[in-house]
Amino acid sequence: MEVFVKLVPMALAAVMSFGASATNKQVYLDVQVSDLAPAQGAKWKRNAEEEVLFPIELARLKGRGCTVLSFDISDEGKTENVEIVESIPKRELGIYGRKMVRNWDWVPVSATDKTAEQKRLVRLDFCMGAESAEQVEQYCKQQAQLGCRL
Description:
Blueprint: E1 5-6, E2 10-15, E3 26-37, E4 44-46, H1 56-60, E5 65-73, E6 79-88, H2 91-102, E7 106-108, E8 118-129, H3 133-143
Antiparallel strand pairs: 1-3, 2-3, 3-8, 4-7, 5-6, 5-8
């Protein structure tokens, strides 16, 4: 059974054009980040001040879906060994997600506990739509509750 713990939602409204017929069309983007493992006992947390941005390349491809990534956090708080576990519907989502996760900064959960290397599993949901930022965010939260497997 998967356990989802919300880390940081990021809703982003952007004006993008996808060809001559769609000029000036408003497109709303959202990325939901779910920490799958460890569910408890995490020694590291992602720097909350960092925005989770929707990759522009993915928006141009009108991409949406989810990816699950496995990686290590070193005892210095650096992301290492990022692997794509699942990527639906296309592998490109995993590739974009892997690029994002590699650049995340990690800070210790507790200032008193000694930091150590830790294995992590994170799910990223990428969503887009034309109705409103709120509607796309709600859709993405619902998507994050579904399985991310073929």
